[in-house]
Design goal:
- Helices cover 47% and strands 12% of the residues.
- The chain has 155 residues and is an alpha+beta fold.
- It has one domain.
- The protein has a 4-stranded mixed β-sheet.
- Helix 3 packs across helix 4.
- The structure holds zinc ion.
- The site of zinc ion (ZN) has 4 residues, from helix 3.
């Protein structure tokens, strides 16, 4: 495996960024050892067909397994993704509630366990390098949209 970058968190958890080919390989290797009827529901054919047609659903962009978090390089700016995977390391399972530990990316609305802060504290360097600039940009875009909406309403 040839990571793009690797970091060691304060608690010893490894954070490994992989390009698409390496990351997809990792998922396939993991799934090879698991009978298909035991795959998580979001990876079953019907869910994946739905995902391909509508974009609603999930294909893994991160993975957590014994002391290691793997993140798809393209998704390195996603605070919720890192918080979610680190949540697994901290012992949280998937939830149906609309929070960070939902398996479906689009349903992660709240953070009851404060996992974003915990991930930020544990991985300060990659957070500063990959997530901070991205979040600042996202807030600027959202702020800009709000501003233009107000502007449109005023005139
Ligand atoms: Zn998960």
């Amino acid at each position: 495996m040839m990571p793009v970058e690797t970091y060691t968190g304060k608690d010893g958890t490894l954070l490994i960024y992989l390009d698409d080919a390496e990351f997809n390989n990792l998922i396939l290797e993991y799934l090879r050892d698991v009978p298909k009827d035991q795959w998580p529901s979001y990876l079953q054919d019907s869910a994946q067909n739905m995902f391909r047609m509508t974009g609603i659903g999930y294909y893994p962009n991160g993975m957590a397994t014994d002391g290691k978090v793997y993140i798809r390089w393209k998704w390195r700016g996603d605070a919720e993704l890192l918080a979610h995977e680190y949540g697994h390391i901290l012992g949280h399972d998937h939830t149906d509630s609309l929070s960070i530990m939902n398996a479906v990316t689009q349903l992660r609305f709240s953070d009851p366990h404060n996992l974003e802060q915990k991930a930020k504290d544990n991985f300060p360097e990659p957070w500063r390098k990959h997530i901070q600039p991205h979040e600042a940009y996202r807030r600027m875009v959202i702020g800009g949209l709000t501003l233009s909406a107000v502007w449109a309403w005023m005139i």
